[in-house]
Design goal:
alpha/beta, Rossmann fold, formyl-coa transferase, domain 3, 2 domains, three-stranded antiparallel sheet, 38% helix, disordered N terminus, disordered C terminus
């Protein structure tokens, strides 16, 4: 197993966290790979992000909503170091390989075949870098008829069948977030952590391959089983549930929307008695069990809606709490940003960026007994180019002069 390389690096701003000293080199664009490597950076890894000279990661240009810079880029790239490098030029490719010589993990979501053309495919590196963990993220995988297809999030949601079961009966819809990218990034992140554990045991690196279609396909498991063995796909139910009733949004007298969901017959009894104040519904054959309630969803929802529209949100939430029925307010994104539970748990923190101090959520895994998490800055394009290349050149000169060799993978 390779040694960790902290002693050879310029200070990236922090050395704390369980992955402190780990070096990750990433040729990444857009969402999936940057999401994976940001999780590693949050754990203390040193993530060196290689960007196209002049333009950088295409996500930098998605919007200008965060004081002139992209909301996607801020979200996905906190805690990394950015270097501009033309990896297709002779000198840029040499420096790319010098960085990989120092790396514990190499992540890439380049176009199919691009890594091999750059000489950084796993096959080319496996012999010379036996301790290196490589992670290749693509839309459809490294083989098969779809290998070379472009794979934007909407396209993968469509190919995985997710759009067909999302939305209303009249309108199929995509999920409002880049969910195919996000789930691929999370499997890349967990796969890298698993590979690091295995390397600690065996001393060997490995090749990881993550396909967006296969990652999202895993999340489609319930729907696929339901369809394969039930004969029909789950119906599009908007914010309701295809197979549970009552479940979903209900309006209140003061024009709020409250979400509620029932899971069992004990809750149905409490709901009828305390929330609807119609205990006689327990003996109505249309609503005897969940399957009956789903079959008569329209009638049931109309009954529930008449009650909720007679109450304020505060009154309805009080009844739901008394009956111990799962419920939630339908919040806007702005309201989420001011959520009382997140404030109560002190989940927001400040971090630096090219446009000044910003605020974001701290990572969702709380490790008790450790110091409070410190969020590292979002890099400007090429901000760390000089420092990283000076480190490479200085280290090479020391080796040429007979100094201590670098640790090898």
């Amino acid at each position: 197993m390779s040694e960790l390389h902290t002693q050879h690096l310029p200070d990236p701003g922090t050395t704390d966290g369980p992955l402190a000293g780990l070096v990750v080199v990433s040729l990444e664009q857009a969402v999936a790979a940057p999401f994976a490597t940001r999780q590693l950076a949050d754990l203390g890894a040193r993530v060196i992000k290689i960007e196209r000279p002049g333009s950088g990661d295409l996500a930098r240009g998605y919007d200008r909503t965060v004081r002139g810079i992209s909301s996607h880029f801020v979200w996905l790239n906190r805690g990394k170091e950015s270097i501009e490098l033309d990896v297709r030029s002779e000198e840029g490719n040499r420096r790319l390989h010098a960085l990989i010589d120092r790396a514990d993990v190499l992540v890439q979501n380049l176009a199919p075949g691009a890594a091999a053309r750059l000489g950084i495919g796993h096959a080319a590196l496996a012999v010379s870098h036996p301790g290196l963990i490589t992670c290749d993220i693509s839309g459809y995988g490294g083989s098969g008829a779809y290998r070379d297809r472009k794979a934007y999030d909407l396209l993968v949601q469509s190919e995985a069948g997710l759009v067909s079961i999302t939305g209303t009966p009249d309108t199929p819809s995509k999920v409002g977030l880049s969910i195919a990218d996000i789930c691929a990034g999370m499997y890349a992140y967990s796969g890298i952590l698993t590979a690091l554990l295995d390397r600690g045991r065996t001393g060997r690196g490995t090749q990881l391959e993550i396909s967006m279609l296969e990652a999202l396909g895993e999340w489609m498991g319930y729907a696929e089983y339901f369809t394969r063995y039930g004969g029909t796909a789950p119906g599009r139910a908007g914010a309701s549930h295809a197979t549970i009733a009552p479940y979903g949004p209900f309006p209140t007298r003061d024009e709020q929307t409250v979400m509620l969901g029932l899971q069992n017959e004990h809750e149905w009894a409490a709901f009828c008695d305390i929330v609807l104040r119609r205990p006689q519904l327990l003996h109505d054959a249309r609503f005897t069990g969940n399957a009956d309630r789903v079959a008569h969803r329209a009638e049931l929802d109309n009954m529930v809606r008449k009650v909720t529209q007679s109450l304020t949100a505060k009154e309805l939430l009080g009844r739901l709490a008394q009956a111990r029925i799962a419920h939630a307010r339908q919040r806007t994104v702005e309201e989420f940003g001011d959520h009382p539970q997140l404030h109560a748990r002190d989940r927001w923190a400040s971090f630096d960026s090219p446009v000044g101090e910003l605020r974001g959520l701290i990572p969702p895994v709380t490790v008790h007994g450790q110091a409070p998490h410190r969020l590292r800055p979002v890099p400007a394009l090429g901000q760390h180019t000089d420092a990283v290349l000076a480190w490479l050149d200085g280290a090479a000169e020391r080796l040429h002069d007979g100094g201590a060799p670098w640790p090898q993978n």
